[in-house]
Amino acid sequence: MFVTLIGKDQFSKDKRIDKFLAETLGDRISDPMAKQVLYATDTNIASISDVIIEACDSVSIFSPEQVIVVRKAEALKTDDMKALAKWLPHAASGKLLFDFETLLASSELYKALAKVGKVEKFDVPKQYEMADWISAVVPTHFNKAIEPAASQYLAEALGNDTKLVSEEVEKILLYAPDCKKITLDLVKTMVVSQRDIPTYEIEGFFGMQNAKAYVQKLNELLNSGVDAIRISNTLYNYALSLLNYGSLTAKGVSPEEAAKKIGKNYYMFVKKGQAAECCRRWRKPLLVRVLRRLADLNYEIKSGKCPTRMSQELALAALVVR
Fold first, then answer.
1. Minimal CA–CA distance to 203: which of 264, 273, 305, 256?
2. Dihedral angle, C-alpha 301, 306, 312, 317, nearest 10 °
3. Cα–Cα distance for residue pair 84/254, rounded to 1 Å
4. Which SS3 state, helix, strand or coil, does residue 61 take?
5. DSSP one-letter code for 107
6. Three-state SS for 266?
7. What contacts 64, CB < 8 A, 6 or more positions away?
8. pLDDT digits (tens, 9 = 90+) for 96-152
9. Are strands 118-121 and 95-100 parallel, antiparallel or unpaired?
10. Where are the alpha helices (DSSP H) in 124-179?
């Protein structure tokens, strides 16, 4: 039985590995001698391929077959990959699982693994899908209800690292095991943002052309050490999203579908972010001009033509204050 997992959704891969071990080991699952978990990053192992091949090929009549799990398999040495690709098509037997983050479908090892067993893909949810992913996983895996606002906070604070999110939920439940529901207040007391997202806060003020609030937030970000280039990049990407959203809805595409096409969360970008109103206030010709100015400003800052903190703040403020 050969199984290959490929992807960065480590939470789901861990669940799949648990299932694999339960299926292959049965009553022997608690026997430490029944399985080997190898890490391709382990520098103490001279050749991972030698260990795998020996364990799978030398089954004793006096002992049952060992189950092998190879973690961090993307770190396999080139020689090990070649040896495994050569051995797999002729392997007599084996209960072997590989856990890759990435593996090219054009590689010889991928082709060999696909020929002898299952190759399963585990892609992480996109960032705008994370809140929905959390809302689905917490009740099914942790048997707890969770407020939508709490799911959104976790998604914004932790990003789309599924294993990190699951570990943070476990920490919350260790702290409050008797809670009937994971609330926004509860997650705020336990989870600190691990994503660098301060520039996100300026988008709403920019989109609504709220000059006073925009200038205050701009000053706050620059005072806290946020680089002007990062702010200009954030505004450029946001303005481009508004332009694309406005163009799609003008052609009759529904707001939900338009948000999906540009990779935005419908609730955050359209409902909470008032994308339609922002597009109305900016209008397409003005958005195009702002995008050109942001591109020029980015170049000016990088090339030293806008070198001082004051000149950068004034240039960014001028986008809305005019």
1. 273
2. -100
3. 50
4. coil
5. S
6. helix
7. 28, 34
8. 999 999 999 999 999 999 998 889 999 998 878 899 999 999 999 999 999 999 998
9. unpaired
10. 130-142, 148-158, 162-175
